[in-house]
Amino acid sequence: MEELEFLISKEDAKERIDKYLTAHCSLSRSRIQSLIDEGYVTVNDADTKSNYKLRENDEIRMEIPEEKELKVEPIPMDLDIVYEDHDVIVINKPRGMVVHPADTYKEPTLVNGLLYHCKDLSGINGVLRPGIVHRIDKDTTGLLIVAKNDVAHESLVKQLQVKSVSRKYLAIVHGNIEHDFGTIDAPIGRDKNDRLKMAVVEDGRNAVTHFTVRERFKNYCLVECRLETGRTHQIRVHMAFIHHPVAADKKYGPRKSLDCEGQLLHAYELTFTHPVSGKEITVNCDLPEDFKSILEELRRENGHQ
Q1: pTM for this one?
Q2: Alpha-helix runs per DSSP H in the chain
């Protein structure tokens, strides 16, 4: 186990401890925050929190435990492959499937199935997230692009950074949105009161969601959302922020909602530039059956059928 010690100068006083440690060692901020949460970081021999503001002459001690060697086994799965070539593969992810493994999640994930199908994936994101360029939540359904090699991975990440990838979602949301079109431009970060949730916060990361109302029902709307940025839980947080949370979203929506095992949010269209050929590729996938059934019921109730 590696140990590091720091003595805080007057110039570094008032800095958040997680920001300070990120700037002074080779670990990511999320890794440092995890170490703080797990008690591996002390200030003046006492436990601390990630948002602690440093004071002059504070003594920080940080222990860095050795990371466990983790292996991800290939597992045969019936993957819904929408597009595939030598460089990329696009999957229609079902509800309830986690994209990649983690220390806290040991069940089979999409990555296990991809490793069985592809045999080899981009190694840029390490052993737990091979080929994974972006993610969608466990109970969100729809399109996810995966890189088969490092060249494809780097190209796709760059496209996401410069916002040239188009990602469109369909969602059923609570209430009747008055406007046909809208843009939600509100920064997203960790919820100050619940670290398991995200929220619109002043010091969050830039987040922009564009939406269009497709259909209106008595107590719900069908909306199309287009992501300009890709923050964790972005659409779910943004729609809740404007008081139209995604239906059946147990984390960000009301308890009384439509009867579904997970939020009614589906990534239905993805457009990107092929990392090798340079051609623009657009892929689509249909709504899952549970989403379709609920939508048809809302239409019946509204007199559409």
Answers
A1: 0.77
A2: 17-24, 29-37, 110-118, 150-161, 234-241, 289-301
